[in-house]
Amino acid sequence: MADNGTVTLTEADYLRVLIHGSSAFELVHAGLELGMFEELEQHGGMRLDQVAVSLGIEEQPARILLLGLTSLRLLEKHEDHYVNSELARRKLLRSGERFLGPLIDVQAEIINPAIGDLTRSLTSNTNVGIRSIEGRGSTLYERLNGHPRLQNLFYRNMRDVTSYSFSRILDSYDFGSTSHVVSIGGGDGTDVIELAHRYPDIEITIFDQESVAPIAEKRVEDAGLENRVHFRSGDLIRDPIPEGCDTILYVHLFEIWSMRRNVDILRKCHAALPEDGVCLIYNFVSDDEGRGPLSAGLLSPYFLTLASGEGMVYSAQDMERAAMASGFSRVSRRSDLGFSHTLVVGKK
């Protein structure tokens, strides 16, 4: 592992990661599930026999786990002791600077059981992988309504992503003249709670499906914001956008839908806003040339195979075109926010 945050692989090892990627993921997932990274950190390193005892497994399985994670450079071996690598300390410990546990849980329990249907989804242009989650509805979000544990797991990860990414909007966009925000698909309210704390005079409405209301309302109440942050249930495809706002948040939604559906939804946003009202479109993005980055290339199959059967990680140029096609006459972008995200601002 280089000091500058890069990992160098031979071509042969790169191909091994591609072909045996599911094994690499399961090694990481097993390390987290068994609490191995935390145990190693707590003890300052451990021998093979100590790891086996600590994890409650036999030495042969422990040896396989340690060998795999060391070959992936997530562990280091110093004589007969194994310790966490610097990368593991930053990303795989709960006390790390960016713990990836919630994302890995979603990948293991929601995405991976479906992603094997990618080829069928590509050839049929729909989310064949949705069959991995029983229930009503044609999207992942509808199906999760019948699986409270998976729904909580899903929103825990979205809360983590939003907490990490939404602060970048707050640091770069001035909400000082905003009076009422509608957050479409606002989920558990993580983004608007942060917004409400930063701007104490703004009124906020979370607009999302009814099943999310208990999660959002509890978080809003726990934050002491129930007088300013309200929940309104509805379907963003079928129902009109709540009126009376001057700013609409369209955050982590654009990648779910087709370009045509995004334009339809954004037209409803445009209709709900007054003159000079603003729609903030904020998402993971690919580059305008369609060459990457890797995050966009690897996330896009999830949206086709499972989430909705029609979305992908679009470019900022796609987002701008959709905003203009929906009626916003003044459209701009802010691409210097990091985390593979771009903010597109559409003004009526």
From TrEMBL:
Domain of life, per UniProt, equals Bacteria
Under what name is this protein listed?
Answer: Dimerisation domain-containing protein
Q: Which residues form the O-methyltransferase dimerisation domain?
A: 18-90
The chain's coiled-coil residues are none
Arranged from A to Z, the UniProt key words for this protein are: Methyltransferase, S-adenosyl-L-methionine, Transferase
The record ties this protein, via InterPro entries, to:
COMT-like (IPR016461), COMT_C (IPR001077), COMT_dimerisation (IPR012967), SAM-dependent_MTases_sf (IPR029063), WH-like_DNA-bd_sf (IPR036388)
A Pfam family the protein falls into: Dimerisation
Give every O-methyltransferase C-terminal domain span. Answer: 137-329
Q: Where are the transmembrane segments?
A: none
Gene Ontology molecular function terms on file:
O-methyltransferase activity; protein dimerization activity
Record GO biological process: methylation
